[in-house]
Amino acid sequence: MSTTREQPIFSTRAHVFQIDPATKRNWIPASKHALTVSYFYDATRNVYRIISVGGTKAIINSTITPNMTFTKTSQKFGQWADSRANTVYGLGFASEQHLSQFAEKFQEVKEAARLAREKSQDKTELTNPALNITSHQVLPSPIISSNGPGEDKLFRSQSADVEITTEKERLKKMLSEGSVSEVQWEAEFFSLQDNNNKLVAALHEANANVDQWKKQLAAYQEETETLRQRVAELESQGAHDSSSENNKEELSQTLEELELLIKAKDEEIQMLKSQKCSRWETESEREETLQKLQARNAELERRLHLAEQTLAETLAEREKIQNEVTKVAEIMDVKIFELSEIRQGLAKLVESN
What we know:
Helices cover 61% and strands 16% of the residues. By secondary structure, the chain is α+β, with helices and mostly antiparallel strands. Strands 1, 2, 3, 4, 5, 6, 7 and 8 form an 8-stranded antiparallel beta sheet that branches. Helix 3 (180-236) runs antiparallel to helix 4, helix 3 runs parallel beside helix 5 (283-352) and helix 4 (242-277) packs antiparallel against helix 5 (283-352). The longest helix has 70 residues, at 283-352.
């Protein structure tokens, strides 16, 4: 393509698709990434073309004719049919503004192509010797209409009308065979692919965290059972003062909170497992799910922190009770020792008397 003969007049970036020639319903992506799509004007042939190149291959090479129509099928997707290439092209844009700019330029180029065709037809008809009719000749041809002196106008031939009608019917058929829902889904596919990969990575990380939380829960359950046994031992030792009763109530409340925490975490784990098997269909749902996962992770971390504090407090209380029991035992030992000395003294007095 010569740079002096054909120049770009408008360029944009879009994901390029072509209709599946077998089904005429599904879209086939032309590349994995967005490509540059440009309008070109060939001054030598006076034609306009849409061209997109992927690597060394021309993905789009479509000559625009006045009969073409660019249709917006969604906020970010548009399509047009090219009967010469026997295909339908689809473009997925990053925003609605890019789509509107491309559609407006398509309409401008289409109108310019129409004017260029009419101008070319007029020039051809004026230079054709068969149209130089003398005043005494009468041609009953349906292609000439006299509207008065000096106002002869040349219309298109019947064969051209038939060809245009056939082309219109073919374009309507190709457009009607396209599935609007599939067009919208596949147009958004590549723009959502990066977000989908991020969400999948986040889900894997959440699954890893779930396994870790399971291990921590098992450790907490073991430690809770150990605390229960130690509390039972302390209760059997006969500490009946008011401070001990308060400590028992606090320990019982702590144990109940731990059990509720364990139950809540088990429910969260089951919910995460069930959400793992579900399929995210839209971008908004995936973002909402990710936010929920983050919120749940924060809640679980908060609960784990609270459980750690509660366990630390419980251990401190248990150590305090053990110290008190030890002190009581020491006092009892001292009292027993004093009693034994008093008994020995009494025994000596009895023997001396």
